[in-house]
């Protein structure tokens, strides 16, 4: 009995000790944060969010400025952008200019454009539109200074539109592990003109769809046929009215007289944007400007010379077959003379990559009208497969011509990963695959510094 009583006492003591120890642990448990979130009075965001569809693009020739654009539907809203450098408390204000336009029975919201300039290279900036509960915050990073040794990664999307496929393209683009830093857009944006009366609400909804990418990294715009919006039957006689009002480009900094053709430097690349739906023939302002522009590119500073246009010059799909032919006749000899590395186009709703060819020997009577291999020629890439409501271009010319290295009618996007002044890697991703899968890829060598045969 005595032994049993002693055991009970020991057990009871152990229980008490355990409770004390547990209480001790509980008393020194996790921390309760003293941070109190600010309340915005729990008000639902307005149906017409006052600072929606924000987009940015490069704002000067070298990458130390950004054009921030935003549209407020009901009232002018914030008239400027507050911006600051990462790890800095010094905030600055860039005041924007406001414009509105009408198109048939549509009146636009207040379209703001502010040029945020004098930025430092290779730097992350934050920016804010609106104040208080209406404030929206974004960020972007400036590129390295123009120079041959800075790697840089561009994305490529064309003919995006605003379908569920478009949404998938943006999703794949944003989740691409190659981390594109800026997007080269190859024309045909909203496809508003496919709707009755060119329903310009579709320009607004397009702006909202792409905001999740284009508010954070510049999209470099190329004009396509869906930007023309010329409709004399609606008494809309000014071409490009919605695009010109909504999407600005840094054309003046490039010595251009039109927002539709211009150039930029970005890191190791010199990018010339051409306008296929403006006059481009001999004696046109665009031709004159292009000749001066391509002649002044310093490949020691920007080794990669890239041209963007909407309709492809080399296209083996039946869709838009030979539509780029007049442009090819006028410009191809300049591309070869100045050793353009890459020509990107959209328009054909599919993907295609060419080998390095030229067709510049033909003089109508000599019979030399077949494209021939030429290591001074660009690789032509069609990336018009963003996913718009017109669908894929699935019909191809047969047999596949020798100039066509790879072609496939699937929705997707491209990535141009410039490694250094001699090598770049291009990959095409289709939406049907996982984010990291490359459905087509090729190593490219620079035409000026390492003009080896990289066609395959
Ligand atoms: Fe097009
Ligand atoms: Fe298109």
Written overview of the protein:
By secondary structure, the protein is α+β, with helices and mostly antiparallel strands. It has a domain at 145-445: 4-Layer Sandwich (Purple Acid Phosphatase, chain A, domain 2), CATH 3.60.21.10. The protein has helices at 2-27, 164-174, 201-214, 241-246, 285-295, 325-337, and strands at 52-58, 66-72, 80-85, 92-95, 97-99, 102-103, 106-107, 110-116, 124-129, 136-141, 152-157, 182-185, 219-220, 262-266, 269-273, 304-308, 342-345, 351-354, 357-358, 372-373, 379-383, 404-408, 412-418, 423-430, 440-445. A seven-stranded mixed beta sheet has the order 14-15-16-17-21-18-22, covered by helices on one side. A six-stranded mixed beta sheet has the order 13-12-11-23-24-25, covered by helices on one side. A four-stranded antiparallel beta sheet has the order 1-2-8-5. The model is unreliable at 1-5 (pLDDT under 50). One fe (ii) ion is lined by residues 159, 188, 347, 349, 384, 388.
Offer a quick outline of the entry.
The protein has 456 residues and is an alpha+beta fold. It has a domain at 145-445: 4-Layer Sandwich (Purple Acid Phosphatase, chain A, domain 2).
Task: List its traits.
456 residues, alpha+beta, seven-stranded mixed beta sheet, six-stranded mixed beta sheet, 18% helix, 26% strand, globular, binds fe (ii) ion
């Amino acid at each position: 009995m005595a032994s049993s009583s002693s055991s009970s006492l020991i057990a009871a003591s152990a229980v008490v000790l355990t409770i004390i120890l547990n209480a001790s642990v509980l008393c020194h448990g996790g921390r309760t944060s003293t941070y109190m979130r600010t309340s915005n009075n729990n008000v639902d965001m307005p149906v017409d969010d006052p600072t929606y569809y924000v987009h940015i693009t490069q704002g000067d020739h070298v990458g130390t400025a950004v054009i921030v654009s935003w549209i407020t539907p009901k009232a002018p809203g914030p008239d400027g952008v507050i911006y600051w450098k990462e790890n800095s408390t010094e905030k600055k204000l860039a005041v924007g200019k406001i414009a509105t336009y009408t198109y048939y029975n549509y009146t636009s919201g207040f379209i703001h454009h502010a040029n945020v300039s004098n930025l430092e290279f290779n730097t992350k900036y934050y920016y804010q539109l609106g104040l208080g509960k209406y404030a929206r915050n974004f960020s972007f990073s400036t590129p390295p200074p123009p120079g041959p040794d800075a790697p840089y990664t561009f994305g490529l999307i064309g003919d995006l539109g605003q379908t569920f496929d478009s949404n998938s393209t943006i999703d794949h683009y944003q989740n691409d592990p190659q981390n594109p830093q800026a997007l080269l857009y190859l024309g045909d944006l909203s496809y508003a003109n496919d709707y009755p009366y060119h329903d310009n609400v579709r320009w607004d909804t397009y702006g909202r769809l792409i905001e999740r990418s284009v508010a954070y990294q510049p999209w470099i715009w190329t004009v396509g046929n869906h930007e023309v919006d010329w409709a004399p039957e609606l008494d809309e006689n000014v071409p490009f009215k919605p695009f010109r009002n909504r999407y600005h480009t840094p054309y003046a900094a490039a010595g251009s007289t039109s927002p539709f053709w211009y150039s930029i430097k970005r890191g190791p690349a010199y990018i010339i944007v051409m306008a296929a739906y403006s006059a481009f023939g001999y004696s046109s302002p665009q031709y004159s400007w292009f000749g001066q522009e391509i002649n002044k590119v310093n490949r020691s500073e920007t080794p990669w010379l890239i041209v963007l246009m909407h309709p492809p010059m080399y296209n083996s799909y039946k869709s838009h077959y030979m539509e780029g032919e007049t442009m090819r006749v006028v410009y191809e000899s300049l591309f070869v003379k100045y050793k353009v590395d890459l020509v990107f186009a959209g328009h054909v709703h599919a993907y295609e990559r060419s080998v390095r060819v030229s067709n510049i020997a033909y003089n109508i009577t000599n019979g030399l009208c077949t494209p021939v291999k030429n290591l001074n020629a660009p690789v032509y890439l069609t990336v018009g497969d963003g996913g718009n409501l017109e669908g894929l271009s699935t019909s191809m010319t047969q047999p596949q011509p020798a100039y066509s290295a790879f072609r496939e009618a699937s929705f997707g996007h491209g990535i141009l990963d410039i490694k250094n002044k001699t090598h770049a890697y291009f990959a095409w991703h289709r939406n049907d695959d996982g984010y990291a899968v490359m459905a087509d890829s090729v190593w490219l060598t620079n035409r000026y510094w390492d003009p080896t045969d990289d066609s395959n």
